[in-house]
Specification:
Blueprint (H helix, E strand, L loop, with lengths): L2 H4 L4 H28 L20 E8 L12 H5 L27 E4 L4 E4 L3 H4 L5 E8 L5 H10 L9 H9 L9 E4 L23 E3 L20 H22 L3 H23 L7 H7 L7 H15 L4 E7 L7 H25 L6 E6 L3 E2 L11 E2 L3 E7 L6 E3 L1 E2 L6 E3 L2 E2 H11 L9 E3 L2 E3 L15
Parallel strand pairs: 1-7, 1-8, 4-12, 4-15, 5-6, 5-7
Antiparallel strand pairs: 2-3, 4-11, 8-11, 9-10, 13-14, 16-17
Helix pairs in contact: 7-8, 10-11
Length: about 475
């Protein structure tokens, strides 16, 4: 036994030697209290929570085009770019550029008006163009980073320099899940580069809010949720093991008086067990009709992969998954833009239109916010012989359903699509608007970590209410 316990101590000596620990105990209690207050629904981290104000959308499907599709070749029609193709840009380029570009270059594709709104859409997207009256185009989105890694993290987490929770994690944290047997946040075929798991990480939010990946780095037809089935242990034994582990963990909770991280860990274990019952059925596309499979493009080898992703997104969304991300790429054409943008658009055009039409026919589009876009756009100026460079200074994202105006365009770029000139939408504004459509106040949705309150939009962000229906 140590001398501390065997040597006699006066009360004054004892207080002097132990006083340093009293502050630590007080701090531990304070942090525990703050953590409990910062975690809504402690004890049931994914319990449904009401929005802060009436929500226009209940869930999100984010169609992410990894690599940066060109806005001036897809949804931002520029007649003067056609007229002045081959001429120098008549104003200064940014001081910092990812790489050098030369003169203006018109789009290789024609643009045509679609729908009653007359929305101009390029021939790259004829099927999506046919849904133009459901689209809300944001043509003046801009970011802060010319590199893929930083731009992806900015779009997904609001920060290109620090580890922060992703958009899907914030939505999960703020609203919980409508289905306690499935994750609240799923990411289908996520990119493993350019930020990797940081793009769907919960960071310092409770672990149960992290995105659950389906596939990634493999053919989509083979993609599944990892470790969904135990190859050796049946569910009865798993249940007994989980009950024992839960008893041990809850005994710990009783002794420490609350631990948000432990609560989230217990819930993640329970969720993983419950998913064994419902996730396989949600991923079984064999129950879809032949007409539905054809609508998405599962009958065509060129569209089948992305069609599967979009159909899975609909199936999970209608089962109450709050946020589903679907990733496609690689839209990074520094060369061979005509060939590769053409190929990539052909892979996604029919499946995206099929998703929009399917959601609409099922009465789900009004309560599902569909978002399309990449981490940035591409320069209106030529790179090499047939390419465009990274361009965060102006690009297009569109939304559909979920309480936005259909057949509507917001934001203006200059005559060549190089800079945003009116109704600008920064990435923080985009995030604030998405949360606003979900009934969440981006300034109030905060989490205390490391002594300060964090939020998705950091210290800025404006809700673009002009696009609300």
């Amino acid at each position: 036994m140590s001398a501390f316990f065997t040597s006699p101590r006066s009360r004054r000596q004892l207080l002097r030697e132990c006083s340093g620990g009293f502050g630590s105990l007080a701090l531990l209690g304070l942090l525990s209290s703050l953590e409990s207050k910062a975690t809504p629904g402690l004890g049931r981290p994914l319990a449904v929570r009401p929005p802060l104000f009436p929500a226009r959308a209940k869930r999100v499907i984010f169609l992410f085009m990894h690599g940066g599709p060109s806005h001036v070749d897809t949804f931002d029609y520029k007649p003067l770019l056609i007229r002045d193709s081959g001429k120098p840009l008549p104003f200064d380029k940014p001081r910092i550029q990812f790489a050098k570009t030369s003169n203006l270059r018109k789009s290789p594709w024609e643009f045509r008006p679609y729908g009653q709104s007359g929305t101009m859409v390029s021939d790259l997207f004829p099927s999506v163009g046919a849904c133009a009256d459901d689209l809300c185009l944001l043509r003046s989105v801009h970011g802060t980073n010319e590199a893929h890694g930083g731009a992806l993290l900015k779009l997904h987490t609001g920060s290109d320099t620090a580890v922060r929770p992703s958009l899907g994690s914030w939505v999960s944290y703020g609203l919980g899940s409508e289905n306690q047997n499935l994750p609240s946040f799923l990411t289908i075929n996520p990119t493993l580069g350019h930020g990797g798991v940081g793009n769907w990480s919960s960071a310092f939010l409770p672990a149960v809010n992290q995105g659950t990946p389906i596939g990634g780095g493999m053919p989509v037809a083979q993609a599944s949720i990892k470790y969904l089935h135990h190859p050796e242990t049946d569910q009865r034994i798993q249940r007994a093991q989980l009950d024992l582990l839960g008893e041990i963990n809850r005994d710990h909770l009783d002794r420490v008086g609350g631990d948000a991280a432990m609560e989230a860990r217990i819930e993640s274990f329970e969720l993983a067990f419950r998913m064994q019952r419902e996730a396989p059925e949600a991923m079984d596309l064999g129950k879809e009709t032949e007409a539905t499979r054809k609508l998405y493009g599962l009958d065509n080898p060129g569209t089948a992969s992305f069609a599967r992703q979009c159909l899975l997104a609909r199936r999970f969304s209608e089962r109450g998954v709050r946020f589903v991300q679907v990733t496609h790429g690689y839209w990074d054409q520094h060369e061979d833009l005509t060939k590769d943008h053409g190929r990539l658009a052909a892979e996604v055009d029919r499946p995206i239109a099929g998703l929009l039409r399917d959601l609409k026919s099922r009465g789900l589009l009004d309560e599902t916010l569909v978002i399309w876009g990449g981490e940035f756009g591409r320069t209106p100026t030529l790179q090499g012989k047939d390419g465009r460079d990274h361009h965060p200074h102006a690009f297009t994202q569109w939304m559909a359903g979920g309480g936005v105006k259909g057949g509507f365009s917001y934001g203006v770029t200059d005559d060549y699509g190089f800079y945003c000139v009116d109704q600008k939408v920064h990435v923080h504004d985009l995030h604030a608007t998405i949360l606003g459509l979900m009934g969440l106040d981006h300034e109030a949705l905060t989490y205390r970590y490391a002594g300060r309150d964090f939020r998705l939009t950091d210290v800025s962000g404006r809700i673009v209410r002009e696009i609300f229906a």
